[in-house]
Amino acid sequence: MTEPICLTEEIRRLEHAGADTSPSLMERAGAAAADLATAIAQGKDVLVLAGPGNNGGDARVVARLLAERFFRVTLATGPAEVPGDRRWGLIVDGLFGIGLARPVGGEFAALIEFASAQTCPVLALDIASGIDSDTGRALGTAIRATHTITFIALKPGLLTLDGPDHCGAVSVAGLGLEPIVAREARGWTLGPALFSSALRPRRRNFHKGDAGSVGILGGAAGMTGAALLAGRAALSVGAGLVYAGLLDPKAPSVDAQAAELMLRHPDDVLGRDLDAIVVGPGLGQSERAETLVAAALASDLPCVMDADALNLIAESADLRHACARRSADTLLTPHPGEAGRLLALATPDVQADRLHAARALAGNLNAHTVLKGNGSIVVARDGHWFINTSGHPGMASAGMGDVLSGFLGALLAQGFTGEAALALGVHLHGAAADALADAGDGPVGIRASELLAPARRLWNGWLRGAA
User: Fold this and answer.
1) Which residue, 404, 269, 278, 283, is CA-closest to 335?
2) Which residues pair with 151 in a beta bridge?
3) What is the model's pLDDT at position 340?
4) Which of 170, 194, 246, 267 could cross-link to 251 by cystine, CB 3.0-4.6 Å?
5) What is the pTM of this model?
6) What is the DSSP letter of 351?
7) What is the sign of the dihedral through the CA atoms of 439, 444, 445 and 448?
8) What distances in angstroms separate CA 390 from CA 126, 180, 463, one per listed residue?
9) Residue 149 and residue 1 in contact, taking contact as beta carbons nearer than 8 Å
C-alpha cells in the first residue's frame, strides 16, 4: 500500500479546491476525528484543546460531536480552563496542526506539557502540535500523541525526523478529496506496490548471466568486511555474479561465509563485463580510492555511491561535475553527515529540513538519492520523492549501509531503473529489519548480516505476489 504525501502549501491548494463542498471540510474532518475519538477513548471525560486557527476549528467540531454522543467534554484554550481534579479518558490535541513555523511557548507550551504527561490516549488532529508538518522537526515542545488523524493526505512531518516519535498511530481521512490528491501529489510512501508493474518472477529459461553482474569496489585495510557485506547482500537478492574488488593487499582470497563471492583486485573488477558498480563500502579516502570513484563515474554503467565514495565526491569539484554529467543512473546513499558534506552544510542543518536536503542533492548531482535516517527520504532525478515507512532504530548499527548498497547494486544489475531500484531496495532493507524484530530478534542487537535471510524471503514473496 502506498499513500500520497503533501507539503503544507499543497494541502492549502487542495483545501481551496474543496472549499465550496457541503458539508464543509471542517465538518468532515471533525466527524472523522470524532469517530476515531469514540473508538479509542478510555472513559467518558474528554479534554479538547483548541487553538486559534483552523485546527482549533476542527477541535471545536470534535467537541460538539462528542458531546452529542454523551461524552463529558471540556473545551480548553488555555491552562486555566483545564480542571485540575479530572481523570481524562481522552485528550484531543487541536492546538496548531499544520503550518506551524515558530517554537511553541507560553500557555500553549504549558498545555502541550500537560497533555504529554497524561496516561490516557492523546489524539492529535492533522499532526501533533509542535511538530513542523513539512520537516518533522519539533519546534520547542511538542505533543506526544498516541494517535493522529491527518486530513486530506499524509504530511512529511508525520513520517520523518521527530514526527514518528510524537504522532503515534497515524490514520488518514481523505475528506472526499482523494481523486484530486492522487492526481496532484508528487510525494508517496514507499512500498513494493509502488513498482509492482516492474516485479516479475523469473522465467524457467533463465541463467546467471540474465541475473546481472555486480562489481563492489572498496575493502581498504581494516575495512574488508564492509565490501564483503555488500557482496553478500547483492547475492542474497539475486545478482548472478558478484565481484568484490578489495583495496587491502592482504585481503583474503575467498570469503569463508560466501564462497560464491569472487574476490579480486579492483582493476580486475573494473575490467569485467559488469551490469552495475557499487563504490564505497570500506573504500577509505586514499588517492587510489579517489581514482576508483572517478573511473566508476566515467563509466556508462549504473552506479551506487556510498560511504567514502560520497566523502570523496564532497571534497572534489571534478568528481561532483563528473557525477552531475552522467546519463547512466547514479544512486547516492548518504546519511545526514555525508549529506552535509556534499551540500556544505552542518548536519543539524540537513536534519532541519531533510526533504529539502535530499531534493537539493538529487538536483545538484543529477542522481537518485536516499537521505537515510528516521523516515528515509528518496528523491528521484525527475523530482518525485518518497518517504520510507519500514525499519526501526535497531538499524543504527555498523554495516547496515553496506548491506543497502549491495541490495541496490543487485537490483540495478537485474535491470531495474535507478528510481525503482532505490525505492525497492530502501524499503526492502527496512522491511527485513522489521521481520527480524517481529520474530523477536530485535530491534536491539540486530547485526547487518542478519538482514540477508529475511530480505531474500521478502524479495521472493514480492516476486511471487506479482506473478
Assistant:
1) 404
2) 173
3) 98
4) 246
5) 0.95
6) H
7) positive
8) 22, 27, 18
9) no
Q: Residue with C-alpha cell 535491470? A: 415
Q: Rounded to 5 degrees, what are φ and ψ at 444?
A: -75, 135
Per DSSP bridges, beta strands 385-387 and 377-379 are antiparallel
Residue 323's SS3 state is helix
CATH superfamily of 192-465: Ribokinase (3.40.1190.20)
Q: Are 394 and 257 in contact (CB under 8 A)?
A: no
Residue 24 dihedral angles phi and psi, to the nearest 5°: -65, 160
Residues 45, 348: Cα–Cα separation, whole Å: 41
- What ranges do the domains of the chain cover? 4-187, 192-465
- Supply 78's cell numbers: 488555555
- pLDDT tens for each residue of 217-226: 999 999 999 9
Asked if 135 and 129 touch (Cβ cutoff 8 Å), the reply is no
Q: Which helix (H) or strand (E) holds 57?
A: helix 54-68
Q: Which of 143, 151, 304 is nearest to 215 (CA)?
A: 304
Three cell numbers, residue 127: 499532526
State how beta strands 213-218 and 45-50 pair: unpaired
H or E stretch including 52? none
Cα separation, 75 vs 193, in Å, equals 42
**How far is the C-alpha of 430 from the C-alpha of 408, rounded, in Å?**
13
Q: Which CATH architecture has domain 4-187?
A: 3-Layer(aba) Sandwich (3.40)
- Write the pLDDT tens digit of every residue in 176-215: 999 999 998 999 999 888 888 889 899 999 999 999 999 9
Provide the residue type at 44 as one letter. K
CA 398 to chain centre: 19
φ, ψ dihedrals at 149, nearest 5°: -105, 115
Whether the upstream peptide bond of residue 121 has omega within 30° of 0, thus cis, is no
Q: Look up residue 343 and give its three cell numbers.
A: 551540500
Enumerate residue ranges in the chain where pLDDT < 50: none
Q: Let me know: does 130 contact 139? Beta carbons within 8 Å.
A: yes
Q: Is 392 left (phi over 0), alpha (psi -120 to 50) or beta?
A: beta
- Compute the radius of gyration of the chain from its Cα atoms: 25
CA-angle at 315, arms to 311 and 321, nearest 5° = 100
Q: How far apart are CA 358 and CA 132, in angstroms?
A: 17
